[in-house]
Amino acid sequence: MSATSEQTAETLRDQKAREAYFTASQRQLVWARFKKQRAAMTAATVLIVLIISGILAPFLSPYDPTIAGRNKDYMNGAPNVPMFCDKNGCSLRPFLHTIERERSIKTNFRWVEKVNEDKRRYVQFLVEGSDYKLLGFIPAKTHLFGISDGYIHLFGTDATGKDIFSRTLHAIWTSLQVGSIGVFIAFVLALIIGGVSGYYGGWIDSVLQMVTDAVRTVPAIPLFMAIAAFIPQEWSAEMRFFFISLILGLIGWPTLARRVRTHLLTERNQEYVLAAQLCGASSGHIIRRHLLPSFTSYIIVDLVISFPYMVLSETALSFIGLGLKDPVNSLGVMLQNVTSADVLLNYQWYFIPVIFFITLVMAFVFVGDGLRDAADPYSDAGK
To answer: Is pTM, for the whole model, over 0.85?
Structure first.
């Protein structure tokens, strides 16, 4: 009797699972297939952590990343690693040892740094610090952590004394903002141009595809170099920020536009499109309410996949000096500091932002690949 009940319960569960599968929306099916990919789920978790870290960068970072020379005694300083134990015992609170400067006869009375292991500086949490605006509009001055005496630099400092940890978190958010604006501009242009080209066809399609091919064949680096030559030096960091985002968006739409056009060419002759035309619906209404929603998941996948290329473009531009510049903190600006042999030999902590940059790009790539496989009904990813 018990075995029969278990079989009945299992049969009911199988029936409910099949009913849920056949009645699920496209979004639910994509999510169900995406969850089965461990690499994509891990990358999505890492990506969410990085995005939240960038959004909450003013709160998570102990100092304002744009202020140089805050700690004049710690230029090009190595990372401070909090500890819980030393020769004097252990503590539940993380701490750092005090670094003292003194003159010595052995060094011809030059200043030398000496670690005093008898003096501890304890890490404190939710401390008051420099003013900032959380999310861009909420005034605050509370930071996640600080130290009781002096300064703490988890990733060390650069040649001007700026805290690399604070700069890295703010750089992630800046690069994400540039990528978001660029992707949005490219997305709007791709939907308009690709939608009109695919729906109408004929000479309109031919002209728009000529324009698309012309934009695709423009070499990026010479274009950026030419644009950089005409950017006024007196432009503010904000003006340069939006200009770079605009340029990235204006040259990033052709690939997505081609995919939109291809889908609309195959869908415009379907019966539901003919029914909408017979009902008197306008062309714009049919494209916006019927054709584009029919492959929303593919559009989302293309956006996620194109996002890392926007970040890479911004980073490359800033790295070669054609994009953002100080005092703006972006991943490309920070990568400029690792080009010298002196940094490679003596200041290896300058490469910490490089690790975050690689992690961010790889997370987008894995998530994009996972979404692409999940959105493809003929893929083996969800089987």
So the answer is: no
